[in-house]
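Morning F.,

Quick status update on the modeling queue. The single chain you submitted on Monday has been processed. Sequence for confirmation:
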Amino acid sequence: MNIKAFPRMPSAHCEQALQCFFELTEHELRVYRVLLGNGPTTAQDLADLIGKDRSTAYRMVTPLVEMGMVIKETRKQKGGGIFHVYRAKDPEMIQQMLKERIDSWYVMMKKVVNRTSEELTG
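Structure tokens below.
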């Protein structure tokens, strides 16, 4: 997490907090917003929506799945086979996840600060 990337101004936006505490790129945040606005979407449909090829869309959505912002659902095709559909988690859930990450970071930083004198002297 690059805390320096998070602005210290009162005009900071949630996107900046998400980028900082989830280590998201602008492209990944855009993918989340596209999924949020379009509902469950295949990698191919996502690619069409963001103007990229399917493999690029897949690479962009994978970190979102790994951090829990997007859910990957497996569905069966008629006649056999499977495909995956990606669905953005509700913004209220993302808000709670962000709060938990910030709280965890704060606890960790307090521990570091409490060790400062000891570490500097010895």
